[in-house]
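Field reference: "sequence" (input) and "structure" (output). Example, RNA-binding protein KhpA:
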Amino acid sequence: MKELVEVIARALVDHPDAVRVRETEDEDRLVLQISVAPEDMGKVIGKQGRIAKAIRTVVGAAAVREQKRVTVEIL
């Protein structure tokens, strides 16, 4: 799951080396935290949050296949 988010985020930004994805287990879910360079933040979020919503949708679909609950946070 972490690798999927990294690939998507690195494809969107100008500084792919600055992309960091941290994976933590919460009580009943997996939390993926994405951090990017400050100037790339808008590219990951998108206009009106559309890119962020798309990332969450793709990760959610992948999580259903693995029968997990996943939350994606953009820091």
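The chain has a mean pLDDT of 91.
The chain is about 45% helix and 25% strand.
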